[in-house]
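Handout, page 2. Input:
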Amino acid sequence: MKATDIQETEYHPYYNGYIQSAGDVDLLEGLEDEMDTLTAFFASLPTEKLDYRYAEEKWTIPEILAHLIDAERIFAYLALRFARKDATPLAGFDENTYVPESRANERSIEALVAEFRAVRMATVTLFESFNREQLERSGLANGAEMSVRAIGFVIIGHAAHHCAVIEERYV
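Output:
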């Protein structure tokens, strides 16, 4: 299953850029490959750039990584609920509240990368467990319909988006 298989009716238009940036990649391969790519990417960043903010109120690199971890956990939770036919409408989350509470700037980049890898491995395992019917199921998240398979590609594209921002504005 590839991102190009996803119909625009399977997600809120807000996520279109994330799904498009996932590219023409198989869902499971994309999740696995990106885990290795992001691990190497964050490990290669210069230490002196880790506390940098390109503008007031913007996140540091450790905070961005903590945001990716939090968001992936939440997206995976949505995917699990929808795959299991849970019809409960689910709320979104305020990333600007979560990031300061992550204490990312008090942690080493190595610890954050290790946590990212653990979360991504759990995400891969979760998506491996879904059959085609489950991947095509959807539910209501933050007031919008979203399919399980769209969530998988949003996870990939969301991380790719933030890495592009780091490359463009931080290093």
